[in-house]
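Protocol step 4 of 6.
Sequence for 4-diphosphocytidyl-2-C-methyl-D-erythritol kinase (Thermoflavimicrobium daqui) entered exactly as in the expression construct, tag removed. Do not edit the line below.
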Amino acid sequence: MYVSEKAPAKINLTLDVLYKRDDGYHELEMIMTTIDLADRIDLVDLSSNTIQLESSSGLVPQDERNLAYLAAKLLKEKTGIKRGVAIHISKRIPVAAGLAGGSSDAAATLRGLNKLWQLGLSLEELAQIGAEIGSDVPFCVYRNTALARGRGEMLTPLPPPPPCWVVLAKPVHGVSTADVFRNLRVDHIEEHPSAQAMAQAMKDKDYEAMNNLLGNVLEPVTMNMYPEVQKIKQKMIQFGADGVLMSGSGPTVFGLVKQEYRARRIVNSLNGFCQHVFAVRMLGYLD
Ligand code: C5P
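Step 5 output, structure tokens:
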């Protein structure tokens, strides 16, 4: 038996930090959506009670430190199933980029194993298990558009954003989310984005409002650690994107553009300034 699952990346249209919690995590309010850039997860059933993992990218761990491996291990523990799996990850999403690549691989592994092993779990149950792996995994289980609260695991679905193109630009270095949160001074946040107003823009399919409301309180923190992020943002604005923001804890910067030819032009202009540059469609959800 064999199952293949698509593991799409996400971007944050808003990301706000409300306060630091007693458990060390930060209470968040953010709107995330799904874009047309994905890893592929292939799962092959094994009769032996083992988990094997290999990835097309040398940049991700090929053992139990990989979130997809953790997902398989946790699912086996929760269900008591005594079967094994060989996981192969075809990596296209840049690593440590703020695009939830690792979380999406874990979520796709949960969805795929649910089919492969015929576990009959609901998406809600898979999301609950996913929350134990990482804060973004529940969102990636649903791969839609949502308002996320709590650590990121309390999700309210939203309508997809208006159709457009997303230009993504990632500097060479990756960023540790934990480092960015450690450097954040919650009492020093100058401007809080409005998730409510952004949610309304989604409902109204208002592309212009969506661009005006983009905001991420982690952006100045990561820019302070890696000034290159600011330079890429400036270039993306200069080259004509309608709205520009860093995704998650970064360092990937995305620009929204209505027409494909303008997205391609920005990609051409950015080539040479940073390592990874793509233009993909905004999806909003993946069935
Ligand atoms: O949940 P996850 O393991 O993906 O988070 C990585 C790190 O990011 C956490 O260890 C924590 O330092 C930080 N984090 C946080 N508040 C959140 C989510 C993540 O402080 N809501």
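Step 6, annotate. The first strand starts at residue 2 and ends at 20.
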